[in-house]
């Protein structure tokens, strides 16, 4: 009884705060009943990716062709990483969340976005995983003031118990923005752009790495990062992103 009475002021303060600052949909801003959630319309419009999907690229199949099935793209050009999983296609509310997170500095979105990512990446997330975000060049990090991939990686590591290593991978040259570049231009833009921090290389040897990014488009950045991690001694690399932007990934 005493414990219940002790909690009354805190509950009253919570009710008052909810009244003064009502909970809002994290995408459109409409009132909702639950913190860090979507309204009914945004939930229905969110282009979540669900099984069945390609074993390698995580792109959705229109019908079930088997648990380990590969898409034509994976068969024709297998990725350097083992598996990729994403929470949603880069459309509608998913695109709105990515843009708000990255450019409007809504860092509170990292929690719910990471939760949806972890749902689709649960097959390879474990306490033994090394969770590594795609890095920003230090000049871009200074101007933006945070790395959205690192925020996502921190949340995912906390959820699965893996080792969060935001300094494991370095971007050693300042690349052009990938937006507006062709697939070949993107590939050349990130060529030799990444390196493993030599002070952390021993922590990578023989380990399973989960590489985290907010959006995957052509895959040039995550492929370059994966090659760097594998060359430095990682046993395997899986990739987990919030969104897939490349239309060709819809199998």
Could you characterize what this model shows?
This protein is of the alpha/beta class and 251 residues long. Helices cover 37% and strands 14% of the residues. It is built from nine helices and seven strands. The protein has helices at residues 2-20, 40-45, 72-76, 92-103, 110-121, 138-144, 148-160, 183-189, 220-231; strands spanning 84-89, 130-133, 163-164, 169-171, 194-196, 208-216, 236-244. The strands form two sheets. A five-stranded parallel β-sheet has the order 1-7-6-2-3. A two-stranded antiparallel sheet has the order 4-5. Strand 6, helix 9 (220-231) and strand 7 form a beta-alpha-beta unit. Helix 5 (110-121) packs across helix 7 (148-160). The termini are far apart. The model is unreliable at 12-17 (pLDDT under 50).
Radius of gyration: 20 Å
Into which percentage range does the β-strand content fall? 5-15%
Based on DSSP secondary structure assignment, what is the total number of beta strands? 7
Q: Report the average pLDDT across residues.
A: 88
Order of strands across the main sheet: 1-7-6-2-3
User: Percent of residues in helical segments?
Assistant: 25-40%
Uncertain regions: pLDDT < 50 for 5+ in a row?
Answer: 12-17
- Count up the helices: 9
Order of helices and strands: HHHEHHEHHEEHEEHE
Please outline the major beta sheet. 5 strands, parallel
Structural class: alpha/beta
Distance between the termini: 58 Å
What's the assembly state of these chains? Answer: single chain
Write the layout of secondary structure elements.
Blueprint: H1 2-20, H2 40-45, H3 72-76, E1 84-89, H4 92-103, H5 110-121, E2 130-133, H6 138-144, H7 148-160, E3 163-164, E4 169-171, H8 183-189, E5 194-196, E6 208-216, H9 220-231, E7 236-244
């Amino acid at each position: 009884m005493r414990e219940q009475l002790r909690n009354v002021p805190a509950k009253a303060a919570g009710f008052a705060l909810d009244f003064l600052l009502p909970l809002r949909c994290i995408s459109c801003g409409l009132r909702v009943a639950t913190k860090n959630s979507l309204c009914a319309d945004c939930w229905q419009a969110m282009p979540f990716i669900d099984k069945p999907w390609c074993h390698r690229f995580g792109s959705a199949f229109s019908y079930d062709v088997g648990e380990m099935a590969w898409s034509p793209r994976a068969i024709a050009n297998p990725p350097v990483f083992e598996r990729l999983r994403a929470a949603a296609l880069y459309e509608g509310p998913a695109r709105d969340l990515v843009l708000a997170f990255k450019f409007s500095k809504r860092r509170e979105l990292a929690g719910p976005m990471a939760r949806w990512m972890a749902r689709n990446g649960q097959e390879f997330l474990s306490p033994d995983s090394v969770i590594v975000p795609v890095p920003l060049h230090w000049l871009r990090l200074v101007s933006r003031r945070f790395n959205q991939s690192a925020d996502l990686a921190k949340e995912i590591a906390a959820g699965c118990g893996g080792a969060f290593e935001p300094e494991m991978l370095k971007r050693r040259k300042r690349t052009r923005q990938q937006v507006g570049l062709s697939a070949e231009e993107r590939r050349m833009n990130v060529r030799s752009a990444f390196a493993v921090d030599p002070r952390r290389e021993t922590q990578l040897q023989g380990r399973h790495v989960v590489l985290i990014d907010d959006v995957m488009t052509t895959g040039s950045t995550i492929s370059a990062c994966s090659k760097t991690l594998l060359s430095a001694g990682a046993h395997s690399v899986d990739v987990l992103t919030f969104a897939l932007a490349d239309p060709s990934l819809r199998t």
